[in-house]
Amino acid sequence: MINTDVFNYIDVITKAADASALRNKTIANNIANIDTPHYKRQDVSFAANLQQALKNSRFEKLDQKVASLNTNRLRGVVFTDNDAFSYRLDGNNVDVDTENVYMAENQLMYQGLTKSLSSEFQHFQTVSK
To answer: Cα(20)–Cα(78) distance, rounded to whole angstroms?
Structure first.
């Protein structure tokens, strides 16, 4: 059996990709509710959760920190953004232009994550030959 930490990184990248997919759905929901009175935009938090989990690790090296993560507890969390803020008279705080920028940013993030996953598997396949 090959002793490798590659799967630790694959697990974290997979969780990040899952959170990115959730964020895509959340942004699409915001756009769908652009005309819903009193609707408050939602977003997904993942990076801050990962950063906090790594920061709370007792280890110093990144490989050890990643290996010690409980990836079952690592996930994207939907939250209401700017709950009390609204610049519109109907109480809705969704701006379609801003949401489209967030959507494009998130799609680039997802593409980067899936390429990272593919690369990790290719490295693993090369090493295991």
So the answer is: 11
